[in-house]
Amino acid sequence: MRLAILGGGGFRVPLVHGALLRDGGITDLVLHDVDAGRLAAIERVLAEQAEGVAGAPRVRVTTDLADALSDVDFVFSAIRVGGLRGRRLDEQLAQAEGVLGQETVGAGGIAYGLRTVPVAVELARLIGELAPRAWVINFTNPAGMVTEAMAAHLGGRVLGICDSPVGLCRRVAGALGVDPATAWFDYAGLNHLGWLRAVRVGGEDVLPRLLADTGALESFEEGKLFGASWLRALGAVPNEYLHYYYFAREAAASPASRGALLLEQQRDFYAEPSLTSWDRTRLEREATYMAETREGERDDLEGGGYENVALALMRAIALGERANLILNVRNGSALPGVPPDAVVEVPCVVDANGARPLAVSPLPGHALGLVTAIKAVERATIEAATTGSREAALRAFALHPLIDSVSVARRLLDAYAAAHPELGYLA
């Protein structure tokens, strides 16, 4: 099998390569990036990773997109339009207005989407033309929005992945003392906006047992983040990104700039790339993940996770190995109250025919209301990015629940358009 990674000079690519070395199946790996220097740095790390590993994929790098897409079976999209400098600007401009600037949530997520969707749509068109039989695995953020924009051209051949749901389910299973492989996790929502409503083992929902046990509930990341009393009030365990909504004032007041931190960390790595420096930087990166929402250091440094989801997804499709995975896919009739063509994050059955979303129970009113509002924001962002409509872009900012004024929304749009050359298309 042949795999192309778009954004192949990105810092997290060795995680994917490491998973491929452990499991095999991919014979050829091509890395594409617009930055030849970054590609060379990652190529060096992958070469060190593969030393002494029998059957390691053949790796080549290219800055030619058509060359990268030639005769591939899978395309892994992990691009970052505007780079970490763009992310830092997104955060700073939002903070200047007193609103959240996180890269996938709120003003920062909209700005990132406006930069990314036009590129992702063009990628989808090229993949459809140059690699029509390839399956596309999207990890590019904002993952749900980007997957939906690409699905307009690729249909069910593009599938979005995220490591947040699998990490949440793993931690909840650990707190319950159950094997994740034996449990069914009733999780549903949008990317970075989902809720775990039940954990079924042998037909019994054991989540209420966890919700009743404060010690066990606050023994893992989400329990510490939200607090046992709030999780009991919800009757569910939310994705960690919902902290930005449930504790919006505290999150917006945080001076932390993850973009600035990562930019500094990765600048040092790319200056002197090696497997050792990459691993050291990776651990530093994981330790500071969502640091603005927590006191102290992160206690779950397994990190990654998305590379294992990607590997399981590729094996299920290529080898017909049936797998149950939480993915970003077109809804169909899986999640009641959400349009059929909207991309949602739900459990899916994956095999050689692709991914089929499984029917889940309806979201409670408060959750469905938030999902509906954010989906409207995503769709307004996609409209702006695909038509150049400044009115649609303004609507995206103004309708977001974390932006509390049309005046603030207008200033944000003007500031982002002035700061990012990529937004010159907005009329």
Walk me through this protein's architecture.
There is one protein chain. Helix 6 links the parallel strand 5 (135-138) and strand 6 (158-160). By secondary structure, this protein is of the alpha/beta class. 50% of the residues lie in helices and 16% in strands. The longest helix has 24 residues, at 107-130.
Question: What keyword list fits this structure?
Answer:
427 residues, alpha/beta, six-stranded parallel β-sheet, four-stranded antiparallel β-sheet, 50% helix, 16% strand
Architecture blueprint of SSEs:
Blueprint: E1 2-6, H1 13-23, E2 28-32, H2 36-50, E3 58-62, H3 65-69, E4 74-77, H4 83-96, H5 107-130, E5 135-138, H6 143-154, E6 158-160, H7 164-176, E7 184-190, E8 193-201, E9 204-205, H8 207-211, H9 214-217, H10 221-226, H11 228-234, E10 237-238, H12 243-246, H13 248-253, H14 258-271, H15 275-287, H16 306-319, E11 323-330, E12 343-351, E13 354-357, H17 365-387, H18 390-399, H19 406-419
Summarize the structure.
This protein is α/β, with parallel strands linked by helices and 427 residues long. It has 19 helices and 13 strands.
The SS-based structural class is alpha/beta
Note the total helix count.
Answer: 19
* Strand order in the sheet with the most strands: 3-2-1-4-5-6
Q: Quaternary state, please?
A: single chain
Low-confidence stretches: 296-304
Q: Helicity range of the residues?
A: 40-55%
Mean pLDDT: 92
Per DSSP E runs of 2 or more residues, the count of β-strands stands at 13
Termini Cα gap: 43 Å
Described by the principal axes of the CA atoms, the overall outline is: globular
Q: What is the radius of gyration computed over CA atoms, rounded to a whole number of angstroms?
A: 21 Å
For the sheet with most strands, the description reads:
6 strands, parallel
* Beta-strand content: 15-25%
